[in-house]
Amino acid sequence: MHVGKTKYVEAILYGKLLGALLTMPLYDSVDQNILKNQGRGVSMQISHSVCIKI
C-alpha cells in the first residue's frame, strides 16, 4: 500500500474506535434503563435508534 492510503485507513480505524469508546457509556445507560423498565436487554443498534429519538 502507498503511504497515503495507509494513513487514510489508519485515520478511519482510529475514528471508528474512538466513536465506539465514546458511545459505550451512553449505550450502557440506555441498556440498563430499558432492562429496568421492560425487563429485557437491548442491542447497540436499538439503543442508537432510541438515542436519536430523544
What is this structure, in a nutshell?
With 54 residues, the chain is mostly helical. The chain has helices at residues 3-38, 44-53.
Description:
With 54 residues, this protein is mostly helical. It is 85% helix and 0% strand. The chain contains 2 helices and no strands. The relative contact order is 0.11.
Computed over alpha carbons, the radius of gyration is: 16 Å
Q: What would you call the quaternary organization?
A: single chain
Largest sheet: none
The counted number of beta strands is 0
User: Terminal Cα separation, in Å?
Assistant: 43 Å
Low-confidence runs? none
Overall pLDDT level: 82
**Helix percentage range:** over 70%
- How does the helix and strand content classify structurally? mainly alpha
Order of helices and strands: HH
How many H/I helical runs? 2
Which helices and strands occur, and which strands form pairs?
Layout: H1 3-38, H2 44-53
